[in-house]
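This part of the workshop introduces the protein records we will be handling. Getting from the letters to the tokens is the skill we practise here. An example says more than a description, so a record of this kind follows:
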Amino acid sequence: MKKYALAIHGGAGTILPSMMTPALEMAYNEALEKALKAGQVILQNEGSALEAVEAAVKVMEDSPLFNAGRGAVFSNEGTNEMEASIMCGKHRIAGAIAEVKSVKNPISLAKKVLEDDRFVFLNGKGAERYADQFDELKKVSPDYFYTEERYNQWQAVKNEDRALLDHDGASNLQHEDPIIQNQDAKGGDYKFGTVGAVALDMEGNLAAATSTGGLTNKKFGRLGDSALIGCGTYADNHSCAVSCTGYGEHFIQNTVARDISARMEFGGMSLKEAANKVVMDQLVKCNGEGGIIAIDKDGNIELVFNSEGMYRGKVCSDQELPMVAIYR
């Protein structure tokens, strides 16, 4: 019997029930369910894993709740600079983009790069010019990415020599969204985050995708793991598909996504064993906070994180009602 599986994440960190209003929690759950549904419909209709992860990530890029697309954070220069990558497990081909400022859905641009055998990774103005070739890639003005919360986070630290995770420094800031505004009044340290999706389609093919706005007040063209194949994103039909979320430097230094796949391929580990070894042992030893979502070639799903919480969800042919969760 053919089967499918899909998992998503919307960021990981210190996410506690005491830091959430019921309205904000509901908003996150609804956004996660919407993203899962977008990918699930494709998989149920025998669409590809690649199409499914793109669709799921696009939904989260369109939501201001997550640090990707519309909700992207501000750099030190006051711009929204986005990164994304996507990988096909069947052919082990990938596409990645970084420092993109005007493409509404960065993950779709990354997919265009994947489909072009001349490139794997395009950056900055070159990536923007490449996007101009495709009418279906919607371009937007900088105002589209502006949210009051993100702007206030940047204002609080723009004169300091530091960058913040997208969820830091949120307390006592004002937001244009009344749901988030109410949370701020409580002094909550709620989370926004990098987004990602992994999928197995009915043909047995795996795919992974990740998208982010990076760090608040990032400088000098800093890039994280989300656009780096093998670090924040990886897919191989012989092992698994992985998408990561957390402090990018640690995920880069430990090539987390590829390491999980390699432990399965060369070490004979199960997906569960490999994911837990990397996230709960290797990353912890270097103070690396975050998590991963992963699916193996048999449709097993792992949602592993060493932080207090991770926005996450999964759905599969054996359990067609979406499961979403936030806290540990």
User: Anything to note?
Assistant: The domain at 5-327 is CATH 3.60.20.30 (Glutamine Phosphoribosylpyrophosphate, subunit 1, domain 1). The chain has one domain: 5-327. The first strand starts at residue 5 and ends at 13.
